[in-house]
Amino acid sequence: MQGFESETGPESKNAVTIENVPGHSNNGERSLALRYRRLAPGRIARAATLTFIPSKEIADYFDERGYRLLASPTLYPGQVLRAGLAADAGNAEAATLRLYARHYNEDDALEIIGGEPVQLAPGADVQLSWLVPETGNQPIAYIGIEIAGENGASGTVYLDWLSWDGTPDVQLNRPYISEAGRAKRKQPRFWKKAWIYALDSNERFDAWDYWPQPYRVIQNEGRGLLIQGTRDWTDYQFAATAMPRVCEAGGIAVRAQGLQRYYALLLDHEKTRIVRVLDGETILAETDAGWSVEQEVDLKLKVEGNKLTAFVNGEQALEAKDPDNALTGGGIALIAQTGCIYFDKVGVRPV
Description:
Order of helices and strands: EEEEHEEEEEEEEHEEEEEEEEEE
CATH architecture of the largest domain: Sandwich
Structural class: mainly beta
Strand content: over 45%
Number of helices: 2
CATH class of the largest domain: Mainly Beta
Radius of gyration: 23 Å
Number of strands: 22
């Protein structure tokens, strides 16, 4: 339960204090006491923990000093957020609880979404669950517990545990309509800050927006990756539309754990391959069909257990199994090898 803090906005300032206390846990010895006070319409207690970069101001602080804050969200739409809570037996009345999240919007500000509220009587306990909805292709920065009440309600609710599971069901495209033409600055940028930029190009990926494709992936030498996601992702399908410019090869990766740990669907002018990159590169399957410069191609790579299935332009192109099942979880990546590739229609879905 480390990392929780009370919100300090106009609705929630001084509405709740947080304390790590013994007891009130079904599986452990301690819990997090949320002591709320003087609740009323317009005054709501909220306690939250981070899942991404906390604010534009903090991101700017690091950017201006030459040390960019690189992070990927830990929670995504399509996953299920869960929590176990109990109300103190001494509470005078029932508390109204819900799970909530804050995600970035087109102004790079945070806005709130939440699950259905539940009444929790004094001395009772409950397990909340919430399927996180679509956020307009924007990253989620906070998750937490919201407590509402009336007539100056005060009391204590104990948070025993909070977790999430499931496969993301999310689109990772440009979250706004941009004007065609030249590159634009001062556009919303946190949707791009959710990617880890492991490329050698000097282009400021999150500072410029090029039209029409939302992702321009450039690697001057060797192979570079644009990575997002977590090791909790196991079985899923990753799709993207790619348009190769002048490049040696490129494609998409799943179960990415770093620059030398992933499965990938790679294409060049002559071959299409499924490869495993781990202690070197192993070709798991290949065919003689390649791609053409300046021609869009729809790519999809599905991973389930140790089985990988590749689709090109909607048709199954390759299938392979990793006999070692060496990489059991990881995020996604867009790949460019010595050149430039444009990507669009990027998304992750359950298998």
